[in-house]
Each structure stands twice: as structure tokens, then as C-alpha cells.
Amino acid sequence: MTVSTVPQANRLRRALRRPGDALARASIGTVPILWNNVDQPALAARVDAATVLDDIARTGYEGTQLGNGFPRGLALREMLDARALRLAEVYVSLPCTIDGPGDDALDVGRERLALLHDGGGEVLTLALGGSPDRSATSGRAADPSTPRLDDAAWRTLGGIVDRIASEAIAAGHTVSFHQHTGTFVETPDELDRLLAVTDPALLGICLDVGHWTVGGGDPADALRRYGDRVTQVHLKDVDAGVLAELRAGRLPDFDAAIRARLFTELGAGVLDLPAVLAVLAQRDYAGWLMVEQDSCWGPPAESAAIGRRVLAQELRCLGNRRTPSAAGG
Fold first, then answer.
1. pLDDT level of residue 324 (50, 70, 90 thresholds)
2. Per DSSP, what are the bridge partners of residue 65?
3. Tens digit of pLDDT for each residue in 284-298?
């Protein structure tokens, strides 16, 4: 992005965040997995970091998750500063099997924390890595036959998560946990189990509304239930047809669902986005709203732009409903 285009990007951001819009204190970012899918790189040709960050800036976002192929440390800070972007979060995929977290889980968490800190980032977003046996029950994880962690594995996981969170907080960062389909923390019951074995003073919730939907939950109800414990939100819509295929077992696993484009542009799927935003507005949510879409059929920048503009429109409509006109309308 040239210097002359940075003011243009800033003007677009201001146009998308007008006075009176709902959730004025929230920050709006995106997740660059849409350009380079770290789990399924064959979905699309690799896009270089400069192009990804240029696209994110010019489509109106304020921040980004650390992406596949991004530079580290000072080089990353300089690339973000040149585009007036913030490093919203670094995602941590903790290895975990049916027996619990792997021996390297703590080291993985610390490595990602260092990337967050060196890059001047804000939130450490913890999640579990994918597991083949759980991927095969994606969308049907509430079934009795689904493999699950036992009590000992939950205790081990809770201890590791608390330790990573404690170290992140000591370094000046906040920490949230992201439930994810195809892992051992997918369903509402499993997130509750994790919260029961971790310290609420250390760990917030990153509610991914798309994964929550696939896992059998209602996002707006979750936001009401967990309240201020939700410190971060991933906004992700779910294609109705692909979800039905996954739940019926006609797609063999989560990877196949991603290849079928399970996640779609905001406004094009089953997510009740107005209801989600309304609950957040009621509590004056001030964290990150991260628009996310794991893959798309067309150019990534187009899907990113659609998501940003759909979100802008919904925030504007919600703000108008919450602020009666001077005529008493």
C-alpha cells in the first residue's frame, strides 16, 4: 500500500463507522485465513503478506489476526503501521488428543505468546487443534458416541490453559478461549466444562458464532448467558445447505465441510447477526469483532469487503433503532 492510499483507507474506515452506529467502542478486524488457509493450503493459491494486509486495510478493517506467512516482530509492526492496522490477536492451536493436551502444548502456547508480544498485539486466542476422530463427528458432536475427554484430561487441559493465560496477562495481554468444531471443545457443554476447570480471573471467552452454531448452540443465547465473560467475538456465518449435509453425515468430516464452503459471507447464511449485535450492544461491548470466513468461492478481498459492509449496515440499523429521532419516532 502506498503512502497516498493510507488516507483513503482511513476515510473508508470513518465512512463505515459513522456517529450513531451501535457498538461504537468495539474494534473491527478480520482473520486472514480467508486468503491463506493454514489448515488447508490447497484451497487457493498463496497470497503474500503485503497483498493480504493491503486488502484488509482497503476494505475497511482496523485490525487483523496474525496470518499465515506474515513477518514477525519489528517487520510485522512496520507493515501494520504503514497501513494503520493493529495486531488484534494471535491464535494458538494447542495440540490435544483424546488423552488430553500434548506434551508440547505449553511450548506451543509460549511460542505464540512471544509472537503476539513481539508484534505489539493485543489478545492471545487459545483453542484446541483439530483431532481426526472429532472432525469425523463435526456438526454431530452432541451424539453419545462422540469421543470426549475424561476427567483427568480436563484437569490437565485446565492447568495448561491457566498457566499460559497467567503468563500472557503478566506480559500485558488479555486471553480468551475459542471453541472450535472438530476439536474436544466444540459444544456448549464442553465449553462449560473448560470454564469449570479454569480460572475466570485469567480466561475470557472468544465466542465464534459460526463454530458455536455448528456445535449446536445459539449465539445470541450464549452471549446473554456468558455476559461479560465474552471478551472477544468472531463473526462467522454458516451456509445452511452445507451444514445440513454435515449434520446428516453426507460430508465425512469438518475438512470436507470447509472444502464445500461451510462458512460463508456475513448475511448469506443461518446466523442471526442482528440478534448477536443487539445482545452485544446491550452490554456496550468494547472488544474486538473479528469478521472471519475460512474459505470462499471467489476472490478473498471481495468476501472480506462483503462481510465488512454487511456488518456496517447492521450496526447502522441497530444504532438507528436504539436512538429515536428528534421528532419522537
1. low
2. 89
3. 999 999 999 999 999
pLDDT in tens, 20-71: 999 999 999 999 999 999 888 888 889 999 999 999 999 999 999 999 999 9
Cα 189 to chain center, whole Å?
Answer: 20
Q: Are 185 and 128 in contact (CB under 8 A)?
A: yes
Which three-class secondary structure state does DSSP give residue 63?
strand
Q: Which three cell numbers stand for residue 206?
A: 472468544
Q: How many CB atoms lie within 10 A of CB 71?
A: 15
23-49 b/e (C-beta count within 10 Å ≥ 16 → b): beebbbbbbbbbbbbebeeebbeebeb
Which amino acid, residue 92?
Answer: V
Q: How far apart are the C-alpha atoms of 187 and 183, rounded to whole Å? A: 9
Helix (H) or strand (E) segment spanning residue 50 = helix 49-58
- Domains of the chain (ranges, CATH numbers): 21-318 (3.20.20.150)
For the entire predicted model, the pTM comes to: 0.95
Give CA–CA dist 319/18, Å, rounded. Answer: 10
Strands (DSSP E) along the chain, which ranges? 27-30, 63-65, 86-94, 96-97, 100-101, 123-128, 174-178, 204-208, 230-235, 237-238, 263-264, 288-291
pLDDT at 5: 67
Q: Are residues 55 and 301 in contact, defined by beta-carbon separation less than 8 angstroms?
A: yes
| 101-116 confidence digits (pLDDT tens) | 999 999 999 999 999 9
DSSP state of 130: P
Cell digits of residue 88: 488484534
Phi then psi dihedrals of residue 80, to 5 deg: -70, -45
The rounded Cα 301 to chain-centroid distance in angstroms is: 18
